[in-house]
Each structure stands twice: as structure tokens, then as C-alpha cells.
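User: Second chain of the day. Same drill as before.
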Amino acid sequence: MLGDKASPKRPGALKPGEHQFTIAAVQIIRPEKTHSTLLEQKNFPPHQPHRRVSVTTGHVRVIFRDRQPRHIDDLHTDPDFE
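Assistant: Same format as last time:
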């Protein structure tokens, strides 16, 4: 998943109190195929170490279903963001 670094410069892109930051991670589907785990995280907030995400939620659901990577320009406007 990738983003558009220019998107926060667009008028109204960030809500009051929000700020732009860039993250990266390797996300793997766990052997039981119920969750994914974020590994090799870069620039994530400290409260999200090795976060587990259900394969029935948001972007993980779509990637798990389609078996294809996704390019996400703006999470605020993406219909799969939860």
C-alpha cells in the first residue's frame, strides 16, 4: 500500500488537529488465515507495535480476497478504509 505525499497539501485534506506522516511496513497473513501482522514497521506510532488486523477488515480484507497489492492515494476518501 502506498500513498500520495502531495495529498495533505490539498485544501481540506487534513482535518483539524491532523498532521501528515509517512509509514511503511511489511504485512503478513498469519498461518491460521484470520489475521495479518505488521512487521518491519517504520514511523508507526509507539502504541501500534506488531499490530494484528483481522482479514475481514478494511484494506486487509480486499488484499486477502484479491491477492493483489493496493495503491492508496488518500485513506480519507478510500471506501475500504476502516
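The longest strand covers residues 35-42.

User: Great, on to the next one.
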